[in-house]
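Render this sequence as a predicted structure.
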Amino acid sequence: MRHARFTSGGKVLAGRVEGRSIIDAGGNAYGTDDITWLPPVEPSKIVGLVLNYREHADELGLKTGEGPIPFFKPPSSLTGHLTPIVYPAGATHVHYEAELAVVIGRACRRTGREDAMEHVGGYTIANDVTARDFITNTFRPPVKAKCFDTFLPLGPWMVDAADIADASSLSIETRVNGRVVQEGNTSMFVHSIPEVIEFLSGFMTLLPGDVILTGTPRGISRIVPGDIVEIAVGGIGTLSNTVTAEGGTVPES
């Protein structure tokens, strides 16, 4: 089943997606063209992974870690499907990062990899937008670079884990203005989903609704205001967002 959150008539609602309609808990139907999409979950925390695709590490001239390398994105960076990515004033090098997002369904703490998948509630699509202008030292967490408002489009919906036969073999593709710019597959992970859950839950409790961003494949490139960024993940769907300039200011090329 596909689960979505949205606004209609000034109300925040949730329901299951059926074709071009969303059915809420009361059985009311809403056309997907008549609502505003919200991120499908409300996480207490969002944990991303750095360099979880070896080819992406190569394109940046960096080495993958012996274990997962995590970072946080704040819930305030979240935005939904078909909502704008705001290009910050003063930035000159903003790029997309297409990612499979894992949604925790059951709380876990010190969970071994052999049991990890039992704690996954579902999957959605993430765009870990990054302003590379503000990554100046690889020994410092990229807090400013990754934490601007709207820098984490998530959606359009969450697909139940039971409906994804094998999350370790899903295609990932990014299109900018219709042109394919990034391709990968989750089979290329350096660290698998069970390994990552084991690692993270070893030092913090993962709560229902928490999101793990599993890393991006090779192929990042600069985006600018006016661009339309679409990220497609096999078995889930397509997340689409348009880039807009903060205050109407367009950065110089």
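Summary. The mean pLDDT is 93. The longest strand covers residues 152-160.
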